[in-house]
Every structure is written in structure tokens, then in C-alpha cells.
């Protein structure tokens, strides 16, 4: 296979892995830090009304995919009421009904929300509303105001903002003051502005929402004006005539229907409150993903039982240790016993600690090596000899644990975490190397094994890396890409450059 083919394959695999990581980070909002918190708000609507003796029906507009936020959880609290949710386009409402009710009735809608870039901006087809039905002198006043606004505007956006500004000045003109008669609430003023814009064939609508802040308090539901300029909807603040969608604006409803309707009950009212909290970013990201696309969670590691997840938190680190071993062996030139044995020892070091793990490993392997030399004198065959070494290794590990327990050395109890078969094979390999190539070579490879295991354990116990690999297992594809590239490397290792430096000086540049 040509190198070009290999490099293209590695580039493709690495790109796929990085793209998946960026998508989960930027779109699905999975955190990059192991300990991260995000803002979570609880928004609540409290409906209170004195019931009639007849059946009562309560209709409340509720949020539906608010731009910039995601609904993680919803609660409807209404004892003895039937509940019916209905969606109409980009709007949603809940209807409570009861046959008989006594005393003041209180109903609640509560939702937990979090920031989310997935939900798009509020859209919808532009529709020109009904112009206001005005009698004189109100009709003439409206015509005068609209003509003046037209002379001081250049397009739909500036026309709408200038109209809002004229209705917000401290000393409005006589025409504006006349139009504001009996329209003292922000809601009635917003509806009047939308109707005036409709009389000039400008699509306009009133949406309702409030800005989420840091305080836990009651909030006032505010109307916002939106006009369509032919391409997009422009949001205008009715208090200062500024345009643009505020960062913390939580859209409650864009419906043309009233926010609250209680049958023939003018004394019904609704109040809104907001509380802010901090929550674990990983849990919130998982919950947000469940709300948006349940299948993405169902076919991911997050759907596994907690015990299995903990297992994979360790297993996913094995390729990291193997990659470190690849670099140290193929590029640096450190010799070890076996290919993956240092990685398995590194897994044990994660729980025992590097220093304590090295001491325990050396004590058991050293003692086992002495026993192995004695067994050599008995002239045993290979399989019986390995079995005997394994039995002795287990006994040595048990002995270390018992002695450590009597001496109140807790770290000694961690010797049981070492892979017994690997330790037995290490003793066997070390003794064979000692006989064939001498004690220096055996100790050198044993030192290399310990060094690789220690470095791999240090990397594998890094909390940030452990979090990233479990949350973004696609990073292993990037690791695979680097492994494929390094797999064709056949040049000098770093230790070989030091080994042959004397020869290089003798030969010289010529």
C-alpha cells in the first residue's frame, strides 16, 4: 500500500473524529472540563382565580422551543383538573378544566431551562394584521403620526423604531397622547403599534417574554414588537426602541392569543417568577440531548448502566497507554517486556499510585524471580514451570497484603489489583532474558517496562484526559490516525542516535 493512500486514510479518520468532537462540544454543549457548571433557570407561571359555580376552563400559553434555550423539564401542578396540551405552529398552550371548584384556585406551570444554540431563531411567515378601526379624531391623529414617521425613516426597520420612539418620549405629541388614551398598559400599547404598522402594509406581531438574570425574583412579562423587513424578523424593544434579539431574552409565547384565558373571569391573573441555579454541565448536556434526540443517547455510552460506564471509563484509557508505549518504543527506543504488558501494569498503577505501585511490583517480581531461579534447578518443563510461578506469584501477593494489613499500610492491600498472569509472565520472561543475554539486559528491559508503565499511568490518571476520552470517545479516531502514520516509520530511534554517535564522529560528514 502506498504511503499516500495511508496518509489520506489517516487524514480522513482524524477529520471524522475531530468533526464529531466539535459537534458534540459546540452543538450538543458537552463540557470540555471534568468539573464544569452551567446556568440553569426555573421559570414558573402562577395562575390564580376565583372560580365560578359553573365548570371552569383555564387556558395558558406556554413556551415551545424558545430561541437560545432548551426546555429540560416541565411540571404542571393543578389538583383535580384535567390537562390538555395543544400545539399550533410555533406556539403551545395548556388547557385545564374542572367541573366544580371551591375557594381561590391556584395552578402552576414550571419549566427548567438552559442555554442551547440548537434551537433556531423565531421564524414564521410574515402576515399583515388587521389595521385599527379608529373614529375621528383618532383616525386623523394616527394618519399624522404615521406620515411624520415616514418622513424620518429610510426603511421598514427605521420606520418601526421611529414609531416606537415617538410613543416612548416623556412629552409625546398631541396626536400620540390622543392615541394613548385608554392604552396605559404595555400590552395595549404594543397591540396599537402592531395595528398602526399593519395600516401601512408592514407585517408586525407582538411576542411575549422576559430576560433571565442572576436574581431569584418575580418578573414582569414584557411585550416585544417584531416587524418583517422582507427577509427576516426584526425584534424591537418597546421600552427604548433598540433592535436585536437580547441574549437573555426567554420567549414565552409568540401567539396572537392572550397569555391567559379563564372563562368569563376578569379577576383571573397570572404572575411569573424566575430562579437561577448552577448545575453539573455533563448532567445537563445529557438531559438536553435526551430532550432533543433520544436516539443519540440511546445509542451512546451514556445509555449504559452506571457500573458499565465506570468500566468503560477505564477501558477507553487503554488505547492512550498503548499509544504512549508506541511512542516510547518506536520513536524513543525504550525496550520492554512484551507489547501490552506495560499498559496493563499502568492500569494497576492508576489505583495504587505510581510510587507505591513500583515498590509493590519490584518486591513481588524480585521475590518471584528468586523462586524462578530455584525452579530452574528442578528441570521442570515449560507449562508446569509457568504454573508453579503463577502459584508462587499469587501466594506472594497474598503475603504482601497480609503483612501490609498487620502493619496498617493500606497501599499494600492494593497489590491485588495487579494482573497475576502478567506478573507471572514477567518473572518468566525476565529469568529467560537473564539466562540468555545476562542480568544487565534483563534489568534494562525491566526498567524500561517500569518506566513505560509509570508514564502511561501518569497520563491515564489525568482527570481532564479521562473526562475527554469518555465524553468524546471520537478522540480515539484521532489517536488511530496518528497510529497509522507512525506505523510506517522505520527510521532511527532516539536511543540509537546516542548509541551510534561515536561511529558518526569517526565517519565524519564526508
From TrEMBL:
Domain (7 transmembrane helices usually fused to an inactive transglutaminase): residue spans on this chain: 258-503
Domain Inactive transglutaminase fused to 7 transmembrane helices span(s) in chain numbering: 23-182
Keyword annotations: Membrane, Transmembrane, Transmembrane helix
Transmembrane segments: 6-23, 311-332, 352-375, 382-403, 409-427, 439-462, 468-489
UniProt cross-references to Pfam families, sorted A to Z: 7TM_transglut (PF14402), Transglut_i_TM (PF14400)
Protein name stated in the entry: Inactive transglutaminase family protein
Amino acid at each position: 500500500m502506498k504511503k499516500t493512500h495511508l496518509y489520506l486514510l489517516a487524514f480522513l479518520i482524524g477529520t471524522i473524529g475531530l468533526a464529531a468532537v466539535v459537534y458534540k462540544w459546540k452543538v450538543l454543549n458537552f463540557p470540555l472540563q471534568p468539573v464544569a457548571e452551567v446556568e440553569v433557570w426555573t421559570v414558573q407561571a402562577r395562575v390564580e382565580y376565583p372560580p365560578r359555580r359553573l365548570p371552569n376552563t383555564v387556558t395558558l400559553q406556554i413556551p415551545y422551543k424558545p430561541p437560545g434555550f432548551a426546555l429540560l423539564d416541565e411540571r404542571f401542578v393543578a389538583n383535580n383538573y384535567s390537562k390538555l396540551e395543544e400545539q399550533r405552529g410555533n406556539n403551545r398552550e395548556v388547557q385545564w378544566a374542572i367541573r366544580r371548584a371551591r375557594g381561590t384556585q391556584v395552578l402552576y406551570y414550571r419549566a427548567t431551562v438552559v442555554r442551547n444554540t440548537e434551537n433556531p431563531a423565531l421564524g414564521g411567515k410574515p402576515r399583515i394584521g388587521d389595521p385599527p378601526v379608529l373614529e375621528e379624531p383618532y383616525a386623523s391623529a394616527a394618519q399624522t403620526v404615521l406620515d411624520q414617521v415616514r418622513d424620518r425613516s429610510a426603511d421598514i426597520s427605521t420606520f418601526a423604531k421611529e414609531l416606537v420612539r415617538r410613543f416612548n418620549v416623556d412629552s409625546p405629541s398631541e396626536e400620540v397622547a390622543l392615541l394613548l388614551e385608554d392604552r396605559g398598559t404595555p400590552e395595549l400599547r404594543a397591540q396599537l403599534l402592531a395595528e398602526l404598522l399593519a395600516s401601512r402594509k408592514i407585517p408586525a406581531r407582538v411576542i411575549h417574554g422576559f430576560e433571565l438574570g442572576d436574581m431569584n425574583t418575580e418578573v414582569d412579562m414584557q411585550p416585544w414588537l417584531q416587524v418583517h423587513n422582507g427577509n427576516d424578523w426584526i425584534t424591537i424593544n418597546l421600552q427604548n426602541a433598540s433592535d436585536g434579539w437580547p441574549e437573555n431574552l426567554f420567549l414565552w409565547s409568540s401567539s396572537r392569543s392572550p397569555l391567559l384565558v379563564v372563562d368569563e373571569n376578569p379577576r383571573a391573573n397570572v404572575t411569573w417568577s424566575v430562579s437561577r441555579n448552577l448545575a453539573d454541565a455533563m448532567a445537563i448536556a445529557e438531559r438536553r440531548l435526551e430532550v432533543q434526540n433520544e436516539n443519540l443517547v440511546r445509542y451512546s455510552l451514556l445509555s449504559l448502566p452506571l457500573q458499565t460506564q465506570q468500566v468503560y471509563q477505564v477501558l477507553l484509557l487503554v488505547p492512550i497507554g498503548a499509544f504512549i508505549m508506541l511512542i516510547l518504543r518506536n520513536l524513543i527506543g525504550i525496550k520492554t517486556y512484551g507489547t501490552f504488558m506495560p499498559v496493563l501494569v499502568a492500569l494497576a498503577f492508576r489505583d495504587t499510585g505510581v510510587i507505591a505501585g513500583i515498590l509493590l511490583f519490584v518486591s513481588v517480581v524480585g521475590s518471584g524471580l528468586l523462586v524462578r531461579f530455584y525452579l530452574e534447578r528442578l528441570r521442570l518443563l515449560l507449562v508446569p514451570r509457568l504454573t508453579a510461578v503463577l502459584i508462587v506469584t499469587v501466594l506472594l501477593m497474598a503475603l504482601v497484603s497480609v503483612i501490609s494489613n498487620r502493619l496498617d499500610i493500606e497501599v499494600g492491600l492494593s497489590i491485588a489489583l495487579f494482573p497475576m498472569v502478567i506478573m507471572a509472565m514477567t518473572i518468566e520472561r525476565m529469568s529467560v532474558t537473564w539466562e540468555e543475554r545476562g542480568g544487565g539486559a534483563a534489568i534494562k528491559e525491566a526498567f524500561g517496562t517500569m518506566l513505560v508503565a509509570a508514564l502511561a499511568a501518569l497520563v491515564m490518571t489525568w482527570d481532564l484526559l479521562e473526562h475527554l476520552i469518555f465524553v468524546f470517545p471520537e478522540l480515539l479516531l484521532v489517536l488511530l490516525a496518528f497510529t497509522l502514520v507512525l506505523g510506517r516509520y522505520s527510521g532511527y530511534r532516539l536511543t540509537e542516535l546516542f548509541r551510534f554517535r561515536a561511529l558518526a564522529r569517526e565517519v565524519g560528514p564526508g
